[in-house]
Amino acid sequence: MVMNLGWPAKASEEPLLQKPLYQANVHIDPVKKEVSGSIAIIFWPKDPKHAYLHLYPDVFTKRQDGMLWEELLGKEPGLGTYDSNKLTVDGKAVAGKKTGHILEIPLAAEGEPISETGPHKIELDFAMKLPHNDGRMSYDEHAIWLGNWLPILAVYDQGGWRLDAYEPVGDPFYSEVADYEVNVTFPAGYQWASTAPDKAAEVTAPSKGEKTARLRVKDVRDFALVVMDASYQSTESKAGDTVVRTWWRQGDDVQQAKQNHQAAVSSLAYFHQNLGAYPYTEYDVIRTGGAINGMEYPALVFLDGRHFLANAEYAIDTVVHETAHQWFYGLVGNDQLREAWLDEGFTEYATISFLTEQYPLHGAERVRRRLANGTFVPLYVKEHQRPWQALTEFPANQYYSDLVYSRTTSMLWLLRGAWGEERLYDVLRQYVATYRYQLVSGEQWKAFLTKAAGEDASAFLDYWMNLDMSQQEQAAAWLERQREKQQK
Ligand SMILES: [Zn+2]
């Protein structure tokens, strides 16, 4: 497809009603690896009796056993600590109840329902010593990377409260868009990058040798932060109105870092054009330690050090994939524990579409692998495995990769074959515009696809996403009719 020059109009700036606000004051000691602070969450209750917070750092204070945990955290992870106290609701002390990493917060005493007219405020203090592992929240000698570290409200959807345990497969997160006001204090010699527009942040010096960054950002699903020592440097360029910054450290391959940066800039511009306007003014690509590969957060992604070695084989592909997540996961949210295909599969389709156009050698190889792994799946049929199942059902990362990534991508790639790339992007752009800043379900995508196709898409989705082999012929016939209609 030929890209138009110029940028689409900005998305409408209609304020979301009843959007939570997180206000945090945090102190980080990069030498002791300690993070402590307080958070206030101003929100509209979904349930008159309770609210629930995910305290994800709590997961890494206990030993987790098994192959999948070892693949996520490494062979000998060091445990962290996590304490939370001084819990209040609207200024009154309450007793929370912790089950696993979930904190249940009573909003009202028995027989005394909370007022439903206005927002309420939860306040909580927390203190942690960081765990040492290969995952999303840890540290090494040059950086502290904090993913899924602040207390965050659980989602209440049509299935009720979603209070799932942390899973070692996939990205076990589900959250709603909110605003964040985070003040972070750390030693003056360190640098930082976060979900907020950091270049625009006000910085003050509360005491000698320390600085406080006032970080403000609206309409994000989470808030990630990386604190880096002086060995880090960044390069930046603009993609439309967004400043893209890529951060790497001394000892990394400069050539590879620049190539990663270029891929981030050009893919952000491409997705902005094809999937709808990117609303954030700054996008950070950050080299972390550990071995998470790549991990997406709003307006910021992590790439582990392997992506900054000379001629790193998959570095470009990973950068592009994490950038595509800014749309699928970031702008359009979903239950990543039950319907991961909605974020991973759509992200990977956008990735191979971009690569095919702008990095054809990478693109051709990646398309070939995705189709090979996603279309021939007799083993998974036999084992009743499918893309449209919860993370808890996947016995190994290979199953997750083949089904959630490759099979969903294959389905969309075949749809592109029938419709053409341009029409599929038109539909995806409409889909993103419809669910921008919201949560979408697989059923909603089915309805959306049905409408776009002008014909019930159930058989097509049942065959591809539920591996219902009884629908195989129907799915093929559906696709063929779509092809014929498009050619008319
Ligand atoms: Zn992904």
TrEMBL record:
Xref: SUPFAM superfamilies: Metalloproteases ('zincins'), catalytic domain
Domain of life per record: Bacteria
Active site (UniProt): E322, Y405
InterPro entries reported for this sequence: M1_LTA4H, Peptidase_M1_dom, Peptidase_M4/M1_CTD_sf
Lipid biosynthesis as UniProt keyword: no
Keywords: Metal-binding, Zinc
Molecular-function annotations in GO: metallopeptidase activity; zinc ion binding
Cofactor section: Zn(2+)
Residue ranges of domain Peptidase M1 membrane alanine aminopeptidase in the record: 267-464
Designated name of the protein: Peptidase
Binding-site residues, Zn(2+): H321, H325, E344
Cofactor binding mode and count: Binds 1 zinc ion per subunit.
Entry-linked Pfam families: Peptidase_M1 (PF01433)
